[in-house]
């Protein structure tokens, strides 16, 4: 069961609380769609200054839109293309301060100015990505990256 909580305005403590909330939400559930849906909703509720949060899952060599919160999005993204596809091909987080400076950026939402994409890796295989967009440039910092990587690490144990 999810219990809404008040955050502390200490980013590090708030992220630690977020990780505990995620574990409580998914610990008894094995369905990937249910877990990713709740994870997207939790991040949407927690993060400020974002306009899209969700998942793309790798299917037959391309990323396919999964559970998300926000405006309708690009349905398919080729591996190696855009920020999401690059996160898959490089197998590492992409933290982009200004998406308009990223070669080959795919503009699913013209309002997006910055983006962070974290690959989801299960049994040494990339199975998808967590993608978060913001209407503000330079929205995501190293603390966001650290805890969003921990967030996906928790998810990986349940997928």
From TrEMBL:
<dbReference type="InterPro" id="IPR051330">
    <property type="entry name" value="Phosphatase_reg/MetRdx"/>
</dbReference>
<dbReference type="InterPro" id="IPR003018">
    <property type="entry name" value="GAF"/>
</dbReference>
<dbReference type="InterPro" id="IPR029016">
    <property type="entry name" value="GAF-like_dom_sf"/>
</dbReference>
<comment type="similarity">
    <text>Belongs to the free Met sulfoxide reductase family.</text>
</comment>
<protein>
    <submittedName>
        <fullName>Protein YtsP</fullName>
    </submittedName>
</protein>
<feature type="domain" description="GAF">
    <location>
        <begin position="31"/>
        <end position="159"/>
    </location>
</feature>
<dbReference type="Pfam" id="PF13185">
    <property type="entry name" value="GAF_2"/>
</dbReference>
<dbReference type="GO" id="GO:0033745">
    <property type="term" value="F:L-methionine-(R)-S-oxide reductase activity"/>
</dbReference>
<dbReference type="GO" id="GO:0005829">
    <property type="term" value="C:cytosol"/>
</dbReference>
<dbReference type="InterPro" id="IPR000614">
    <property type="entry name" value="FRMsr_CS"/>
</dbReference>
């Amino acid at each position: 069961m999810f219990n809404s909580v008040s955050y502390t305005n200490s980013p590090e403590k708030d992220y630690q609380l977020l990780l505990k909330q995620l574990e409580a939400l998914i610990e008894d559930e094995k369905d990937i769609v249910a877990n990713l849906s709740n994870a997207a909703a939790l991040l949407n509720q927690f993060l400020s200054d974002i306009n899209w949060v969700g998942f793309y899952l790798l299917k037959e060599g391309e990323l396919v839109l999964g559970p998300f919160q926000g405006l309708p999005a690009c349905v398919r993204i080729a591996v190696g293309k855009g920020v999401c596809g690059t996160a898959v091909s490089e197998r590492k987080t992409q933290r982009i301060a200004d998406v308009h400076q990223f070669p080959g950026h795919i503009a699913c939402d013209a309002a997006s100015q910055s983006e962070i994409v974290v690959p989801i890796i299960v049994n040494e295989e990339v199975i998808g990505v967590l993608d978060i967009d913001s209407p503000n440039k330079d929205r995501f910092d190293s603390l966001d990256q650290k805890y969003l990587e921990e967030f996906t690490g928790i998810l990986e144990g349940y997928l």
